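Re: [ENG-882] Designed sequences occasionally contain unexpected residues at chain ends

Forwarding the minimal case from QA. Structure tokens:
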């Protein structure tokens, strides 16, 4: 499909972050474009930590149609927008921007697809229900804020938030009680976790980035419940290893990565790609990489 603003150009997209070299987004969106017959280009852009806006301005000036945004710029992306979707407002952050030239000027729309990506991976790809289940979210930062709204939409029996800084957990609960008062939400301090069990436990902390364990006892994992780490990597995280030893089903965030990308692609292009082949291919690639490194 030719560029809407210049019929001789291919529609341009990118992922912007710092660091950015590890990103799989270009491969994911290339697979989506091939499957759906969309002619686009998609690149990685490293933005200096103090120059997100000028970096994006330059990309938009070159005829860009949209960007994905990763750490540490999701809040800046939200503030940069001229219009914000309800789910980005709930998260207070954006991982997707869409650029549209209108008669009144450039409209920059902020969206957040993290929550729907997580829920689709859990409910569709993994086959685990959230409705009427007891959900525990570890963490109360940006990653948690980005997904709690979508979890609430599934009408769980309850959502508990546990965070090292208890005040931040209370702030998150109070924020989302205004959005959905039908689902019971509560703050559970780390020292209280041992007295409870949960059907779905989501690690939204940054602990797995350095292979450390968030403050969670093995007793919280219900047998055959789901332990989901929003991070993904070459090996299981300490959180997932603890959960597996406790008898839980485990999953990392690779499926969420692909699903949130698919939602962004749909938001941009109006066509929803199939995600299962992309997730499968990325799993095989990771396994092969592990085998090669073990030799």
């Amino acid at each position: 499909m030719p560029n809407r603003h210049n019929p001789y150009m291919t529609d341009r997209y990118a992922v912007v972050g710092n660091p950015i070299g590890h990103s799989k987004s270009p491969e994911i969106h290339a697979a989506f474009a091939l499957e759906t017959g969309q002619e686009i280009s998609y690149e990685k852009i490293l933005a200096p930590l103090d120059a997100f806006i000028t970096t994006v301005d330059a990309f938009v000036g070159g005829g860009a149609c949209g960007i994905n945004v990763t750490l540490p710029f999701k809040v800046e992306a939200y503030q940069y927008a001229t219009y914000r979707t309800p789910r980005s407002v709930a998260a207070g952050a954006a991982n997707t921007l869409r650029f549209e030239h209108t008669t009144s000027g450039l409209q920059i729309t902020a969206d957040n697809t993290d929550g729907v990506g997580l829920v689709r991976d859990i409910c569709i790809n993994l086959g685990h229900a959230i409705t009427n289940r007891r959900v525990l979210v570890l963490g109360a930062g940006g990653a948690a804020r980005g997904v709690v709204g979508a979890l609430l939409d599934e009408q769980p029996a309850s959502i508990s938030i546990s965070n090292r800084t208890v005040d931040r957990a209370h702030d998150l609960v109070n924020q989302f009680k205004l959005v959905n008062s039908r689902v019971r939400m509560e703050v559970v301090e780390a020292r209280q976790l041992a007295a409870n069990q949960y059907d779905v436990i989501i690690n939204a902390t940054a602990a797995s980035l350095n292979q450390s364990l968030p403050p969670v006892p093995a007793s919280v994992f219900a047998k055959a419940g789901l332990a989901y780490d929003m991070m993904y990597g070459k090996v299981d995280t300490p959180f997932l290893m603890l959960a597996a030893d406790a008898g839980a089903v485990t999953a990392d965030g690779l499926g969420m990565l692909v699903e949130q990308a698919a939602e962004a692609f749909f938001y941009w292009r109006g066509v929803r790609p199939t995600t299962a082949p992309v997730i499968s291919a990325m799993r095989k690639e990771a396994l092969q990489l592990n085998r090669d490194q073990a030799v």
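QA comment: On inspection the terminal residues look reasonable. Residues 144 and 204 are 5 Å apart (CA to CA). Proposing we downgrade this to a documentation issue.
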